[in-house]
Amino acid sequence: MGIFDELKSVGKALQEAGKIEQYQQILETQEKLLEMQKRIFELENENKKLKENRRVRESLILRADVYFLPKSDGTEDGPFCTKCFDVDVNLVRVHSNEDGGGYGWCPNCKVGYKIL
């Protein structure tokens, strides 16, 4: 039996016994537990995201002022904007100019890059 079921059972017994003040305390405790459960869920998600960001950061390869990510097949994914990742931890793919001159730009922050 979980803690919420236990509290519900105790609350029902208190309510039936006419112990309204104690019953109210059980309801408040349940509410606090739900808030704590929600906060734990939020912290677990934040922790997961931070771990993933750290894993990506440790994998990034800086070359020609842009980032690349190694892939499992030995190739690389990218290039990615260094500014967007370093400031916002946001992997944004750098787009190449249509003239084929080896230049690119970030569609998010508009920074231009020389891509080798």
What percentage of the residues does DSSP assign to strands (E)?
Answer: 15-25%
Report the helical percentage.
40-55%
Quaternary structure of the protein = single chain
**Helix and strand element order:** HHEEEHEEE
Q: Span between N and C termini?
A: 62 Å
Content-based structural category: alpha+beta
Radius of gyration: 26 Å
Number of helices: 3
**What about the largest sheet?**
3 strands, antiparallel
Strand order of the largest sheet: 1-2-3
- Overall structural domain count: 2
**Mean pLDDT over all positions:** 89
Low-confidence stretches: none
Strand segment tally = 6
Task: Describe the structure in your own words.
- The chain has helices spanning 3-16, 20-59, 82-88, and strands spanning 61-63, 66-70, 76-81, 95-96, 103-105, 112-114.
- It is α+β, with helices and mostly antiparallel strands.
- The protein folds into 2 domains: 3-55; 61-114, no CATH class.
- It has a 3-stranded antiparallel β-sheet. It has a 3-stranded antiparallel β-sheet with strand order 4-5-6, with no helix packed on it.
- Strand 2 and strand 3 (76-81) form a beta hairpin.
- Helix 1 packs antiparallel against helix 2 (20-59).
- The model has no long low-confidence stretch (mean pLDDT 89).
